[in-house]
Amino acid sequence: MSVSNKRFPEGFLWGGATAANQIEGGFDEGNKGLNIADVLPGGKGRLKVVNEPGFNYEIDHEKHRYPNHEAIDFYHRYKEDIALFAEMGFKVFRMSIAWTRIFPNGTELEPNEEGLAFYDRVFDELHKHGIEPVVTISHYEMPVNLTKEYGGWRSRDVIAFFERYARAILNRYKDKVKYWMTFNEINSAMHFPIMSMGFTTKEGEHHYQAIFQAFHHQFVASSLAVKACREIIPDAEIGCMILAAPVYSYDSNPENVMHALQKEQMFNYFCADVHVRGEYPAYAQRFFKEHDVKLELHDGDIELIKEFTVDYIGFSYYMSITEKKDKKPEEIIAGNVLEGVKNPFLQASDWGWEIDPTGLRIILNKLYYRYQVPLFVVENGLGANDKVEEDGSINDDYRIDYLRSHVEAMAEAIEDGVDLMGYTSWGCIDLVSMSTGEYSKRYGFIYVDKHDDGSGTLERKKKKSFHWYKKVIASNGENL
């Protein structure tokens, strides 16, 4: 056991993070409509299925298994799970609201009371245990109806549907939620737009035109949500949320250094620049020109984006990216959803994700000194194969080592002067993996007896990391 000599600030927001579509289950209960996650099958190829001929966003039980339909049944077991979070000492719990629980098709004029009441119960249970909810308004759960009828965020019409949804939940939970974020990992659409934008580009379509027009619609929608939050809950804090990964050059060749810089600008900074600075950066304007992207802007869009910027940046951190300009397909590291080439100085997880705790300190410094707004690490964790021993114990020392090194990196960043609000470890309870649709890719402090073949009792068990994280929180990050 090591004892850190770096202190986290008083009131630091320790907790855990999840998403509705990955934990709730109850996919057809409470008058809930279908979302994108409900029609994506389980398995490592789930993000590729949508590009297969004939995929129509329908459920096909004869061909596929759909783990998100049951997930870990938080919908019925939330009290048990929240009690376990409280036992660990959580100050906050990052969660999302399922859009289709509130507006089943996305287009209704009035919200679904059954869905609203469910989250009332969840928030009340959290507050009973002294835990503040941190709520993501849209976390990879576009209503399927909006995808089929409007093409997802391709359509400007979706802005109005999103604003109606945002205003409905802000009004309903104005006395229960004070930390909000608009879109989860909004920049992830650079790599897999199906999750955050609700569409994939088709063969022959101008990929960048579709993606960046959809980004613009989301930026307008995000600003409208910020505007609504300021009106309805003036003392709330509302942030953006990005997937952050520092981009390293493969070597000191200036061509590779420049290539890495351009990748970092468009991936890490583009969305944050618009959310925080309220404007499209010059490097993006050049990118648009060079790739023949012509954004359709409406009167008032730019002014709205400029006026209603976010209060903080929430971000996920799992890995860094190493880039070189002329990489060959066989050089791209297997398992890394963000592409890039192998970094010879890093080890990788069971799923091929490179482990780089120093990269967290690097990106914290880069983001803070670029934007000068508070930062919030709202996702970070290790997906691994966990083994239940004969005595029922789960000795996940590898997860403790991973998390310890990342907590130490945050402490160093705070010492560097970074204003860090809090840390919510991803998948604080085992859940369905977004990227692979697997139960076996486990992140949690709490083991859930559920498996890729659909078997399992859903029983909850505390892993060794549960007790470790409890000590970390109790000591405010001193006892690691």
UniProtKB/TrEMBL annotation:
One of its GO terms (biological process) is carbohydrate catabolic process. Keywords: Glycosidase, Hydrolase. The keyword Hydrolase applies. SUPFAM superfamilies: (Trans)glycosidases (SSF51445). InterPro entries: GH, GH_1_N_CS, Glyco_hydro_1, Glyco_hydro_1_AS. Transmembrane segments: none annotated. Belongs to the glycosyl hydrolase 1 family. This is 6-phospho-beta-glucosidase. It comes from Sutcliffiella cohnii.
